[in-house]
Design goal:
Number of strands: 18
CATH superfamily of the largest domain: 2-enoyl-CoA Hydratase, Chain A, domain 1
Strand order of the largest sheet: 11-10-9-12-13-14-15-16
Number of helices: 30
Largest sheet: 8 strands, mixed
CATH architecture of the largest domain: Alpha-Beta Complex
Helix content: 40-55%
Distance between the termini: 31 Å
Radius of gyration: 28 Å
Shape: globular
Number of domains: 3
CATH class of the largest domain: Alpha Beta
CATH topology of the largest domain: 2-enoyl-CoA Hydratase, Chain A, domain 1
Structural class: alpha/beta
Length: 698
């Protein structure tokens, strides 16, 4: 079937675009649309043209697979200019989510009507680019510079009512029939004597005034702090600012120049990799044959930070939740935590009081395990101790139906061992949520040896309902994320014992673009958690392994981070953000002396090189062992759960970008000093030998 169809109804021409699943503006769409518009423009009997895309959504942006490639098709900007210049009324009839290029096409039309649930946006910034088909020039003319820059710099989706009040669309239809809406609106415009209205000629909302200059200056100031490592936000502001001083045709040429500069930026490469990686994470064997079980009622065991967060994530997804806690005091504490979180959302106008009450009605808590007998899924979120978790699963095995899925929210422990106490281990799975679980997107789905395909499918379906980003992991200590974290954490401890400052290490990692430094993260999570893990692993540690005792000395003093107001940093009402704990350096000096180490200085590059090498090293081993199915899954884990910058693509993509040969050389150099910790992984050696990269394994 042709991607572009058209027909003439009396004096109205109807263009219908069909390019499933989301009507991306591919080369075929652009060729067909331009050809159709040019042909219709020659028909003198036609007084109006309606552009629709009747299936799932109106045009939802460019085909990202074509970015950076030479494609034999007109650029979208040329088509938008042609639409706008027609001497017949052009109506864009919108529904779904007209984003990016889809909204740019709509803005080049003379009038816009939208179905009630339509949302519009220009989210190109999330891909490291800017709207390159007139978006940075037409949007300010419709809604003003302030709203236009806010939309383009955040990538947010604007609902129909707000789009109408701001001038982005002209009318909201009463129903979702996008074809009928467009035709009726076009007939009305013709009947009432309306004429073509090029967006480029609308001037009342843009002006090169002192007020506008001050507004743009504010956006620049925010961007310099919030987007200091990114290219495209600054290019968007420049395009708007410079466009105000140029005539429209010159402003469009300037936008195109800036768009092409964005395409060449390394951030664009990383962000687009992240975009595709997050869509490839569901390409796993179990989902081909597995059938998800319908979930309605969920049980949560444990009312601590994780239990309350998971409960809220489940309630937000519409599930009825029963929480099990040890006593009434713990129940009241958990309820207070959940209530205060929703109260804060009401206060910030994120939800209404009615929505809060409706959500809270789905929650109950009890000390009685037998209340779980009618649950479809139970998520255990108790203390990270194997004996405690197995005890819980023994109880669940006795109480729950054989169809109930049993999940453990473990961060490190062996899910196979947990499943061994259950009669039917095919229904046992690991669901590693990240804290706070009601906010963090990542969900590691840990597939045990006997986990069924149906159970895996159900877990992925649950993630979708909770709006999480699920990544499949096999069973090992720490799974994907925490196993890699453990490796680079030990690598950084080695460096600190050798003379680096923990605060210098954190600064280098933040400057690289990570949300937080390593020692900040320890303070946030609680140093006692890592301490418990180290003690658990102590009996299995090889006598030749280098073990740094600095973090143990910190924990022995009761300095667990934010929860104790003291860790690697200091916390409190009158304490500045990132104030170092001065006693940490004293501990480091004492431990260096005890270990007989003469401290040396490290520069930024040495710290960053070792940080990246440790991540890639362990990531490569995880791939070799098939704990992760593909490198992009590791990238998704780190960009969604560990604060690794999306614009760098993730650790494996970043390794590709700087060259695997360089990573391997660093690892070989480190292995000369510590061969037990840094033995070069065979897979990495093979990839370098074959001149391949991690992307070749995706």
């Amino acid at each position: 079937m042709s991607v572009i169809k058209h027909k003439i109804i009396e004096e109205i021409a109807l263009i219908e675009i069909y390019n499933p699943p989301v009507n991306a503006i591919s080369a075929a769409v652009r060729v067909g649309l331009l050809e159709t518009i040019e042909n219709l423009s020659l028909n003198e009997k036609i007084r109006a043209i309606v552009i629709t895309a009747p299936e799932r959504t109106f045009l939802a942006g460019a085909d990202i697979k074509e970015f950076g490639k030479k494609v034999d098709a007109p650029i979208l900007g040329k088509i938008c200019d042609k639409i706008e210049s027609l001497n017949k009324i052009v109506v864009a009839s919108l529904h779904g989510t007209p984003l990016g290029g889809g909204l740019e096409v709509a803005m080049s039309a003379h009038y816009r009507i939208a179905a009630p649930n339509t949302k519009v946006g220009l989210p190109e910034v999330l891909l490291g680019i800017l709207p390159g088909a007139g978006g940075t020039q037409r949007l300010p003319r419709l809604c003003g510079v302030d709203m236009a820059l806010d939309m383009m710099l955040t990538g947010k989706h604007v609902p129909a009512k707000e789009a109408l009040s701001s001038g982005i669309i002209d009318e909201i239809a009463k129903n979702n029939n996008t074809i009928d809406n467009g035709i009726e609106y076009a007939k009305k415009l013709v009947k009432e004597g309306f004429r073509p209205r090029p967006t480029s000629q609308i001037q009342n909302k843009i002006s090169d005034t002192e007020e506008t200059s001050e507004l743009i200056l504010k956006f620049k100031d925010t961007a310099s702090k919030k987007y200091k490592n990114l290219f495209s936000p600054h290019a968007i502001i420049r395009s708007v600012e410079e466009g105000l001083k140029l005539d429209f045709a010159e402003a469009i040429l300037n936008e195109r120049k800036l768009f092409e500069e964005c395409i060449e930026s390394p951030q664009r490469q990383g962000l687009i990799h992240s975009f595709f990686a997050e869509r490839a994470n569901t390409k796993i064997p179990e989902l081909k044959e597995g059938k998800p079980i319908e979930l309605n009622k969920i049980g949560i065991i444990g009312g601590g930070t994780m239990g309350t967060g998971i409960s809220m994530a489940a309630m937000n997804a519409g599930f009825n939740v029963i929480m099990i806690e040890q006593n009434d005091e713990a129940i009241q504490k958990a309820k207070a935590k959940i209530t205060s979180t929703y109260d804060r959302s009401v206060k910030l106008n994120r939800i209404t009081t009615e929505q809060k009450n409706k959500t809270m009605d789905m929650f109950s808590a009890t000390t009685n395990f037998s209340e779980l007998k009618d649950r479809d899924l139970i998520i255990e979120a108790v203390f990270e101790n194997m004996d405690v978790k197995k005890e819980v699963f023994v109880k669940l095995n006795q109480i729950c139906s054989q169809d109930c899925i049993l999940a453990s929210n473990t961060s490190y422990l062996n899910v196979n061992e947990i499943a061994s106490v259950v009669d039917n281990p095919s229904r046992v799975i690991g669901l590693h949520f990240f804290s706070p679980a009601n906010i963090m997107k990542l969900l590691e789905v840990v597939v045990a040896e006997k986990t069924s395909k149906d159970t895996v499918s159900t877990a992925f379906n649950l993630a979708k309902q909770m709006r999480k980003v699920p990544v499949r992991s096999g069973v090992c200590d720490g799974f994907i994320g925490n196993r890699i974290l453990s490796k680079y954490l030990v690598g950084m401890y080695h460096m600190v014992e050798d003379g680096a400052s923990p605060f210098h290490v954190d600064k280098v990692i933040r400057d690289f673009g990570c949300a937080m430094g390593i020692f900040q993260v320890i303070d946030l999570a609680g140093g006692d958690i890592g301490w418990a893990t180290r003690k658990r692993k102590a009996p299995f540690r090889h006598k030749d392994d280098r073990y740094v005792q600095i973090p143990d000395r910190v924990c022995e003093r009761g300095w667990f981070g934010q929860k104790t107001s003291k860790g690697y940093y200091l916390y409190g009402e009158n304490v500045d953000f990132l104030t170092p704990n001065p006693e940490i350096e004293v501990i480091c000096e004492q431990e260096r002396k005890r270990a007989g180490i003469t401290p040396k200085k490290f520069d930024d590059k040495e710290i960053l090189d070792k940080y990246i090498a440790a991540m890639v090293y362990e990531g490569t081993k995880i791939l070799s062992e098939q704990i992760a199915l593909k490198p992009s899954d590791i990238d998704v884990v780190f960009t969604n759960g560990y604060g690794f910058p999306k614009w760098r693509g993730g650790p494996m993509k970043y390794a590709d970008m700087i060259g695997l040969d360089k990573i391997l050389k660093n690892i070989q150099k480190y292995s000369e000093e510590d061969p037990r910790f840094w033995t070069p992984p065979k897979l990495l050696e093979d990839l370098v030998k074959q001149n391949k990269n991690f992307d070749s394994l995706n």
